[in-house]
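Lab meeting, item 3. Inverse folding demo.
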């Protein structure tokens, strides 16, 4: 193959255009990756629709990808000092921080680096090296991209979910880790919520309640660690509050994690926190206007810690990969929409319509993309 083929967003809300780009020869420290699986994230839909203010056009969408190394520019090592060689299967941190500024080095929060850029979101494909998004046969990883060589036994379909949803959930649990025996509630049974259920279980939480509207996804959360689920379509707010109080000894949850993606969930979820508890929000990923909350009763009077979460760092990706390695079959079930690479738009639409919880694009899929 002498070219890379990509689906390019040229106008918001319109069909993606197919374009080909010459395959670059990696310069010093760079890696050319042939993708095996590209993840379709809920954020991709927002970017496609023009709801994400960070997006320049034209853009190769896609910040989630796992693939095999085609070539490297000289000697390159991953974050665990393993030599990266052609043929290796690789995951990478979608965000590229400068690792030289005060935020990166003094505050040690590279995810918040003011110079951070993100594959498939913040850089146009108009200029070389072009291949900076995962809805493409290839990506070129810059010399400062953080990479992780993956075990051959781990399916790339599972690994790709760790890169964004898994890493973001890991970030939540780094900020607020439930104590052993805790009672935890998770809003949203999508990929991030499912990872939160698995991290809650791994942290030793005793009661793990997931609230959501899709029975099959709630079922998947039960397999990954949830002890109880509540279908929000079959209950009203008063019933949900009553059930959560009942499941948490009348006190409310020690920690509520929001992975629902809509800010209205925050106003409701704050009422589920116990006095002295914490509320962690990682699902709201684009501007949604203002939100009315009962600040006195739900935050101040209860001494509740309110924690926002923005994206993730490399250590979170590593943690998420370790988590899925422990139970790959269960995480495989999270991916309920497998589309051939050519059908990127169908996949986006399926995610937009909430027909699937987690969609991926399969490159060279021998099954022709049968779900
Ligand atoms: Zn994502
Ligand atoms: Zn920085």
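The presenter then showed the designed sequence:
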């Amino acid at each position: 193959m002498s070219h890379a083929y990509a689906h390019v967003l040229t106008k918001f809300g319109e069909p993606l255009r197919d374009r080909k780009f010459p395959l670059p020869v990696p310069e010093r420290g760079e890696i050319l990756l042939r993708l095996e699986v590209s993840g379709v994230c809920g954020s991709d839909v927002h970017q496609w629709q023009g709801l994400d203010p960070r997006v320049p056009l034209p853009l190769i969408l896609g910040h989630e990808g796992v693939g095999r190394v085609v070539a490297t520019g000289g000697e390159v090592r991953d974050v665990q000092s393993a030599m990266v060689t052609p043929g290796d299967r690789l995951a990478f941190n979608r965000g590229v921080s400068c690792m030289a500024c005060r935020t990166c080095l003094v505050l040690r929060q590279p995810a918040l680096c003011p110079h951070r850029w993100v594959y498939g979101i913040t850089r146009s494909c108009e200029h070389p090296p072009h291949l900076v998004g995962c809805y493409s046969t290839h990506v070129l990883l810059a010399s400062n991209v953080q990479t992780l060589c993956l075990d051959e036994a781990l399916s790339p379909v599972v690994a790709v979910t760790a890169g964004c949803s898994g890493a973001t959930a890991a970030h939540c649990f780094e900020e607020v880790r439930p104590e052993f025996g805790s009672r935890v509630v998770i809003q949203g049974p999508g990929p991030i919520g499912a990872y939160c259920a698995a991290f809650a279980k791994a942290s030793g939480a005793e009661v793990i309640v997931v609230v959501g509207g899709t029975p099959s996804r709630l079922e998947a959360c039960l397999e990954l660690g949830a002890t109880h689920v509540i279908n929000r379509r079959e209950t009203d707010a008063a019933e949900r509050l009553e059930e959560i109080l009942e499941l948490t000894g009348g006190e409310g949850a020690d920690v509520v994690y929001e992975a629902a993606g809509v800010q209205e969930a925050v106003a409701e979820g704050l009422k589920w926190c116990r006095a002295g508890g914490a509320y962690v929000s990682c699902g709201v990923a684009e501007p949604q206007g203002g939100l009315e909350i009962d600040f006195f009763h739900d935050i101040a009077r209860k001494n509740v810690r309110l924690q926002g979460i923005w994206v993730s760092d490399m250590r979170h990706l590593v943690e998420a990969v370790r988590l899925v390695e422990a139970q790959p079959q269960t995480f495989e079930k999270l991916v309920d929409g497998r589309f051939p690479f050519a059908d990127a738009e169908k996949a986006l639409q399926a995610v937009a319509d909430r027909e699937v919880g987690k969609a991926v694009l399969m490159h060279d899929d021998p099954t022709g993309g049968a779900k």
